[in-house]
């Protein structure tokens, strides 16, 4: 009887071993320490990839890479010259209406006028960031003419204004447009010819002139180093005892 029980027990153990072996999973058991290590390695790899992407964005050009290595007294290098590398020089052609103070007692003699203006944004030479886009100066030539009289007596007057005037621009947020106020001075050259019958008498003269006014200025970008410059303005010209006014606009190219 004992021999029969032993034989049955041994047979049962032999059949149970293959069944237990088939129920085991193919992958080894994952211990908690191994899972933590793999999660830490994955997080470290993600951080390295993110850092590499940021580094490539910062190092797009050699200019930014060199600027990042330089420091000023505050420990930071200003990148404004790299963001906008323009020289701050522009040339514009303008036209409008010139209101010449009338010698006949009227408010004005209104005539068309034209001119050329060179602009220098001298604020770019300063280290102060708010003043960089705000300060500029105009060197201007403006021309207008008058003609009046009869067939027997006639007068022709040609006016040339040469002025230099700094200005302060207040931008509309981060846009390319803003309003400005301007004041400066220069010279007014007046060439007058008075014709009586067949004889003409010419009178030329120079007078100091004070320029002042307000306007709207824009410099939308055409490329990284080229801008379109636009201007609408109302300007006063104090010429001796006479007060002339100019209303007009201009357009040009900025570098």
UniProtKB/TrEMBL annotation:
Residues 23-54 are annotated as: Disordered. Residues 23-34 have a biased composition (Acidic residues). InterPro entries: OMP/PagP_B-barrel. Residues 35-47 have a biased composition (Basic and acidic residues). Keywords: Signal. Residues 1-21 form the signal peptide. This is Outer membrane beta-barrel domain-containing protein.
